[in-house]
Write a structure and sequence with these properties.
Helix content: 25-40%
Largest sheet: 5 strands, parallel
Number of helices: 5
CATH architecture: 3-Layer(aba) Sandwich
Strand content: 15-25%
Order of helices and strands: EHEHEHEHEH
Distance between the termini: 8 Å
Strand order of the largest sheet: 2-1-3-4-5
CATH topology: Rossmann fold
CATH superfamily: Response regulator
CATH class: Alpha Beta
Oligomer: single chain
Number of strands: 5
Structural class: alpha/beta
Length: about 140
């Protein structure tokens, strides 16, 4: 691959970040991977999206950034959608989410995957390939 893939990972979970980074590099050794630690707020994410003229292939969000604050998560996803343009957004969640919240989240993201169905220590590659576009 040509290294034309650029990803933004938004998470607070170091294990999740490491597993996903390893998976992305396995698929594309030259992948450009940025990590935004959401503990510092949305401005950090916004600066990643606009600061370095980088066009991301995909944005990967871990719901741990705001669990169990689902209202905050919906606000983050809305802001992300507004700033990310047409870039695909995948949300990985680890908890049980009620139907109403699931519907609200689905309206804001392109892919919505349960982490319990994807073992991030040993990712099911065919499953992740469906939600993480590679050039």
């Amino acid at each position: 691959m040509s290294g034309s893939n650029a990803f933004l990972i938004i998470s607070k979970n170091e294990c999740y970040i490491n597993s996903l980074t390893a998976y992305l590099h396995q698929q594309d050794q030259e992948a450009d991977i940025s990590v935004a630690n959401f503990e510092k707020g949305f401005d950090v994410v916004k600066s990643q999206l606009s600061g370095n003229n980088k066009k991301f292939s995909s944005i990967l969000v871990s719901s741990d950034v705001l669990e169990p604050n689902l209202e905050g998560l919906l606000e983050l996803l809305t802001n992300l959608r507004n700033h990310a343009g047409s870039c695909p957004i995948t949300l990985f969640h680890s908890g049980s989410i009620d139907a109403e919240t699931r519907k609200a989240i689905s309206e804001r993201v392109d892919f919505f995957k349960g982490m319990q169905r994807i073992d991030l220590s040993n990712p099911d590659q065919t499953d992740l390939k469906k939600v993480i576009p590679f050039h």
